[in-house]
Each structure stands twice: as structure tokens, then as C-alpha cells.
Amino acid sequence: MTAPRKPTDVAVLYGGMSAERAVSLASGEQVIAALREAGCQVRAIDAGADLAALIAALDPRPDVVFNALHGRFGEDGAIQGVLDWLGIPYTHSGVRASAIAMDKAAAKAVFAGHGLPVPRGQAMPIAALEHDDPLPRPFVVKPLNEGSSVGVTIVQPGDNRRAELLREWRYGELAMVEEYIPGRELTVAVIGDRALAVTEIVASHGFYDYQAKYADGGSRHLVPAPVHRDTYGQALEIAVAAHRALGCRGASRADFRYDDSAGEPGRLVLLEVNTQPGLTRTSLLPEQAAFAGIGFQELCCWMIENAACRA
Fold first, then answer.
1. Is 278 part of the annotated catalytic residue set?
2. I need a surface site. Which of 18, 55, 94, 196 has the fewest CB within 10 A?
3. 61 is an active site residue
């Protein structure tokens, strides 16, 4: 992994319109600084709702777009389709892989079809929770197409979270409802076809939600994860297999639950794959890259060197 040999005209798309806008702004700011330090000519573009303005900001066309957007419209295949149409190479995955990974039901079907371990559950109308529990408690309810744990709720035995959840739900008519898997939170970053490491995430208040992910002190990251060596190797293998099953490019990050309540090695379950992992100060991909001997600037340069137009 080496830096570009000469300055490159790079447009960094960040910000955007999703619930993860603040995260994207933080990722983009770090990427912009790193690429400028590497000698690149960088255009910083806050990708808002005005598509014509976005296309105008990409004229003249850059050599490459660094897609630092997160969530809907930036991570779900929408902006990827625009960039393919314009013929501009961009970082991370293309339209198909991005769209499937962002749709939790579609991604789960792909993983199951490739024999990867996934939790029990399915997509269903959120209104179905009004009168009955669809699964034994505890169970998890999450939006089909949001990231960063936005909208995720754990319905525990004895509580009335179903009623609260229905009052506050704003993520469409369908939700993903899955069994709650006790144990530990693990994650594996993949660049190219290489899994970097396994990290265990220990949230400060028990659940790795949005606050735990991005607030200072919200969580501790243990890398390499202190798990059974068989589990460690299995997590690396599953992360690469999931990356390939979706057709991902560039970097991705696979998230797992690991139930070791009956002892190790325990049950490892793949939750989802993020096709555009965060690049903030507290993000897991740059942390694992550093563990593997890859600095942040080098990581960003590798991404633009491996960008492509997918059309």
C-alpha cells in the first residue's frame, strides 16, 4: 500500500441527507485532511438534496471520487448510480453490492444462501408488533436500511418497549425483527480480499448504540479480540466470505455477535456488512488498519488508487 506518485484530483463527497450526516461529516473531514497531506488536489463537496448542484460541483470531472457518505442516498447504491452514469471512478462498492448490503433483509438472504451464520428472524410490517411479540423476548427491532445502530431497539422481557417503539418509529412500514443474541460484539474490517483483525467492542452502557459508537468514551475497542483462536479465525473467514458474497469492493466491515455464555468456542453470528465503514477518530476500520501496520493516510490513498467506475 503506497501513496499516489503524483497529485490526484479527488472529490470527497461527505455530509449528505441521511440520519448519519454528522458521522459522514466527521469521516469526510479526516479523509480530506489526509489526502491533502498526501499531495492530492481535493474538492470537498457536501452532497445535499440538489442533484443538479452536486453534478455541477463535479465539473470538471475529478480523477476519482472518495465517497465518504454514510446511510441512505450515499451508501445504498443511489450516489453510486449517479457516478457510474457520469463515468467517474469512486471508492468502495458499486450499485448492486451497496444496495443489497444496505437492505438488511436482502443481505441476510444472500448470507444465508452462502451458508453463513445469521440470526433467526425476518422483515415484517412494524404494525405487526402492536398486539403480539413476533419472537420470544428478548428480541431486536431495527430499520431495514439505516446504519450506525440508528433506530435499533432491544425489547426485553417485562418491559413495554413495543408501545414506545411504535409511537416513535419513523423508518418506513417494514422492520427487521431478529432474535437477541447474548454475548459479545465483534467486528472485522476487510480491505480488498484481506481481513485485517478481529476487534471486540465493549460499550460503556451495555449496548453498542449510536452514542457508544461515536461519543468519546462511549466504548472500548479490544484488538486483537480476546476470544478463542478458532473463533478468531472463523470471524476473519466469514468477513471475507460475506464481502465476496455481496460483491463488495474496497473496504467493508462485518459485524458479529458472539455468544460464549456456555463457554468457548461459542456461537458466532453475522449481523450485517457495512460497505462504507466510518473513518472518524473513533471508527473501527482505521483502528484495525493501524493494528495491521497501515496508517490512515496510506489507507485513504489505497482507496483512491483502487477506485473504479462500475458501469
1. yes
2. 55
3. no
Could you say which of 24, 67, 148, 219 is catalytic? Answer: 148
Known catalytic residue at 148: yes
> Can you tell me the mean pLDDT for 108-125?
96
Helix (H) or strand (E) holding 159: none
**Against a cut of 0.85, is the pTM above it?**
yes
Q: Among this protein's residues, is 90 annotated catalytic? A: no
**How do residues 120-129 score in pLDDT, each as one tens digit?**
999 999 999 8
- Going along the chain from its start, the domains and CATH numbers come out as 9-91 (3.40.50.20), 100-118+183-291 (3.30.470.20), 121-179 (3.30.1490.20)
Q: Which residues have CB under 8 Å from 98's CB, separation 6+?
A: 75, 76, 77, 80, 92, 275, 276
pLDDT tens track for 226-267: 999 999 999 999 999 999 999 999 999 999 999 999 889 999
Catalytic residue (choose from 29, 145, 278, 283)? 278
CA distance 84 to 296: 27
From 27, 93, 145, 274, active-site residue: 274
**Tens digit of pLDDT for each residue in 138-160?**
999 999 887 657 789 999 998 88
36 catalytic residue (yes or no): no
Among residues 214, 252, 258, 266, which one is catalytic? 214
CB 134 within 8 A of CB 128: yes
SS3 content of the chain, % helix, strand, coil (to 5): 35, 25, 40
Mean pLDDT of 97-112: 96
